[in-house]
Amino acid sequence: MRFTSESRLDDGVLERDFTLGGIPGVLWTPGSASAPAPLILAGHPGGLDGMRPRLAGRARHSAEHGFASATIELPGSGDRPRRPAAEQARADLRRAIEAGEPVGEDIVDRLVLPLVDEAVPEWRAALDDLLALPEIGGPVGYSGGVISVGIRLAVVEPRISAAVLFAGSFVPRVMFEEARRVTIPLHVLLQWDDEWNDRQAALDLFDVFGSREKTLHANMGGHTGVPQHAGDAAARFFDRHLK
Fold first, then answer.
1. Per-residue pLDDT for 223 more than 90?
2. What is the pLDDT of residues 133-164, one digit of tens each?
3. How many other C-beta atoms lie within 10 A of the C-beta of residue 43?
4. CA nearest 161: which of 126, 180, 125, 137?
5. Do the Cβ atoms of 69 and 135 come closer than 8 Å?
6. Which listed residue, of 8, 41, 103, 169, carries a Cα 20 to 30 Å from 109's Cα?
7. Residue 177 phi/psi, 5° resolution?
8. Alpha carbons 43 and 164: distance in angstroms, whole number
9. Has residue 69 been placed in a domain?
10. How do 160-166 and 186-191 pair as beta strands?
11. What is the average pLDDT across 183-207?
């Protein structure tokens, strides 16, 4: 991991850009931390530059609770090499949604499964280096999407103790079997009228999660209409499980 820039935000949060094997990322740490901070991995759907204001807002909110946050760019997004098969699948997805047609499982598989297979090892490599920093300690949480990435990480990464999953993306059927193996505490956020999400599939997915403690937090509104109090509820969830 190599840090490339840093700035102190107006609330004292330290924001640092880094690269990890050519993958760009950002780390936010609380300004007044007196001990190594618990870490939240901030998931997102790709396009780090465009997502950065929202991610920084989430990170600053988490810093108020004493958490550090970090994110990395997804494969095929931002300045990373294009993935032609994924771009074709994304175009097929948009075409089906705009035509009011059902989104076929083949489209979802082509779009999501290769992304999960590539992104999860990158997240784990980033976690190795992040936890080696003196200002970062455990435990670790995951927050955000793509939800299939969060599911895989919850299954294979023992250092993640709890997760807030955003039900805002299509999920391959094979991921339902992986969801049965998730045992960490979960807080699942669902926008009831999300135009980019199959609501019934999200409810079915929540039902099969193997976690003994799991909460579904559903709000009215579309994909980008997440209310502020939903973030407050997620922060309280991490307060319980990462402190």
1. no
2. 999 998 999 999 899 999 999 999 999 999 99
3. 24
4. 137
5. no
6. 41
7. -70, -40
8. 10
9. yes
10. parallel
11. 90
**Could you tell me the CATH number of the domain that includes residue 223?**
3.40.50.1820
Only one residue has tokens 């190594």, namely: 36
Contact at 8 Å (CB) between 202 and 167?
Answer: yes
- The DSSP bridge partners found for residue 166 are 189
Residue 96 domain-assigned (yes or no): no
Say if residue 229's pLDDT is above 90: no
Could you tell me which residues are beta bridge partners of residue 144?
A: 165
Do residues 70 and 42 lie in contact, with contact meaning Cβ atoms separated by under 8 Å?
yes
Q: Would you state the structure tokens that stand for residue 128, as one six-digit string?
A: 């190795």
Rounded to 5 degrees, φ, ψ at 132 are -80, -10
Side-by-side strand order, sheet with 214-219? 2-8, 14-20, 23-29, 68-72, 37-42, 136-144, 160-166, 186-191, 214-219
> Residue 172 belongs to what domain range?
2-81+114-242
> Mapping DSSP to helix (H, G, I), strand (E, B) and coil, where does residue 188 land?
strand
Beta bridge partners of 217: 189
Helical ranges in the chain per DSSP H: 48-64, 84-98, 105-131, 147-156, 173-179, 199-208, 228-242
Q: For residue 135, give the DSSP letter.
A: T
The number of distinct structural domains making up the chain is: 1
Tokens for 30?
A: 């609380």
The string of pLDDT tens digits covering residues 69-120 is 999 999 999 999 999 999 999 999 999 988 989 889 999 999 999 999 999 9
Global pTM value? 0.94
